[in-house]
Design goal:
Helix content is 33%, strand content 20%. With 484 residues, the protein is α+β, with helices and mostly antiparallel strands. It folds into three domains: 6-43 and 64-83 and 222-303 and 438-483, FAD/NAD(P)-binding domain (3-Layer(bba) Sandwich), CATH 3.50.50; 90-212, no CATH class; 307-431, 2-Layer Sandwich (Guanine Nucleotide Dissociation Inhibitor, domain 2). Helix 1 runs parallel beside helix 9, helix 2 runs parallel beside helix 14 (466-483) and helix 4 crosses helix 8 (205-213). The radius of gyration is 22 Å and the shape is globular. The chain starts with 5 loop residues before the first strand and ends with a helix.
């Protein structure tokens, strides 16, 4: 084995920052290259006219994973990044007039016809859901995600739960909850997958369970505080960060990684590389793509991508009158596929978040922030989303929202699939890389067949999410250390 001293890290998102920090603390010379003018990736924030807009990640779920990741980096998350819990999680108005409020802990309330009888039944059924799925959530957070994926570990630690993994979110909600409005509201919580409940794997129900078990949180100061803390630690450990430095090629010598060529026609010698861009983009960075390992090529051809998204972010001078962090107007569960269908008119069904309900200081005094993801045509390639196309969809969504709320819009930010592809470097504009319906077989391994090349990030275990992204970078760094 060649002695590794200098490691190039491609990508300055959470995975890249974590990998670089882990290596720097172990005495390696870590050089991180970020194509954009700032680090943070999908967890960064952008200031616009006094409003702090998310660049991607909107909240922290399952905070125990984040805590474990910071412990692995030798950092105390509780001191460096205090969390503020989202107390009023979700308010959902259903097509039958029922309103479901999901608050703090197991506080969920029904407002509608015969609400007292329905509430008593809901309380019992929620206990049944949690008694079944909380052990799986604990398994995930304490035994699986803190370790590189292993079928042996899954069978050893989680064999007793494997029978639960069959089915869809829709089938599970139908089996547990008798109230159609409750089923619809619960399904709406998981629309972040980009899939209707009938196509969402049942394991995604852990996102719902985590609300009641652990809660959702925002870092004090906003999501951008997480990459800021990691950046500060990396610099403290003498790691080097190069922004505005896009890696064009990974160069090999005698079959082993030897250097990185930047877009400014500069070649940087390295002993090894951790690429935290998607496995698909990593393959495209190889100087000689024709000789790329067949295993990487086959995986790229089969990879099921996640949905594309168009994000509308509004900064308001007024305080919007809403009761919860997330707001939804939805049909019943069996009709929720309609929520994902694009329309030539204003969307009938709306999902949007108001992060200033939880953290008012993200906006100027008296102001508000709204984030929404109107449905778009998933068959359109990312390149088709020019300014005219994205503005057309955004204005219809804003019009629909203005019919429900008084809004004085002073700042507007629209991010299209093309923007996600070009600005955020997400392959084909797919916001999660891999589809939430994809299992671990489609993830790229941390160690590639190419000597000295390792992978982390969206398309490697444990996948997307704030805490898991950091863990992925740590796993890749550990794999590199073990192999060298």
């Amino acid at each position: 084995m060649q002695k590794v001293k200098t490691v190039g890290i491609i990508g300055g998102g959470l995975s890249g920052l974590a990998a670089a920090t882990f290596l720097a603390r172990q005495g390696y010379r870590a050089k991180l290259f970020e194509a954009n003018g700032k680090v943070g990736g999908c967890c960064a924030t952008t200031e616009l006219q006094g409003f702090s807009f998310n660049d991607g990640a909107m909240y922290i779920a399952i905070p125990g994973i984040l805590d474990h990741a910071f412990e692995r980096l030798g950092l105390d998350r509780t001191v460096l990044i205090p969390l503020r819990q989202i107390i009023a999680n979700q308010n959902t108005t259903l097509s039958d007039g029922t309103v479901i409020n999901i608050g703090h802990g197991r506080d969920i309330r029904i407002c509608g016809e015969n609400e007292n009888i329905r509430q008593a039944r809901l309380d019992i059924e929620l206990d049944h859901l949690l008694s079944k799925w909380e052990p799986v959530l604990r398994l995930l957070t304490t035994e699986l995600i803190p370790h590189p994926f292993s079928v042996w570990r899954l069978l050893w630690k989680g064999g007793i739960h494997l029978s639960k993994f069959h089915g869809t979110v829709a089938s599970e909600l139908n089996a547990v909850f008798s109230d159609p409005a409750v089923r619809a509201a619960m399904a709406g919580v998981m629309h972040y997958t980009g899939l209707p409940p009938e196509k969402t794997p049942v394991l995604q129900i852990l996102g719902l369970v985590s609300i009641f078990s652990d809660g959702f949180f925002l870092p004090e100061g906003g999501m951008g505080m997480i990459p800021k803390v990691l950046t500060d630690e990396l610099v403290k450990q003498n790691g080097e960060i190069f922004t505005g430095a896009k890696v064009e090629k990974i160069e090999l010598t005698n079959g082993r990684v030897s250097s990185l060529r930047l877009d400014r026609d500069e070649s940087i010698p390295v002993d090894a590389v951790i690429s935290t861009v998607s496995g698909m983009l990593t393959l495209g960075l190889l100087a000689d793509v024709n000789s790329a390992p067949s295993s990487m090529v086959r995986k790229m051809r089969k990879v099921p991508l996640s949905h594309k998204a168009l994000c509308v972010q509004l900064g308001l001078s007024n305080c919007i009158d809403v009761p919860s962090h997330s707001m939804s107007h939805l049909p019943m569960m069996e009709d929720q596929y309609k929520v994902f269908l694009p329309s030539d008119t204003s969307p009938e069904w709306l999902n949007y978040t108001v992060p200033t309900v939880t953290m008012p200081e993200l906006a100027p005094p008296g102001g508000s922030i709204i984030e929404m993801f109107p449905p778009i045509n998933q068959l359109w390639p990312a390149d088709r989303w020019d300014d005219e196309a994205k503005n057309s969809v955004a204005e219809k969504a804003i019009c629909a929202l203005s019919e429900r709320h008084s809004m004085d819009v002073v700042a507007k930010r629209i991010t299209s699939p093309r923007d996600y592809q070009v600005r955020m470097h997400l392959f084909d504009g797919a916001v999660y890389g891999l589809s939430p319906a994809a299992d671990v077989r489609f993830q790229f391994p941390h160690k590639t067949p190419i000597a000295g090349l390792y992978q982390a990030g969206q398309t490697t275990y444990p996948g997307y999410g704030v805490g898991p992204a950091i863990m992925s970078g740590i796993f890749a760094a550990e794999c590199l250390i073990k192999e060298t």
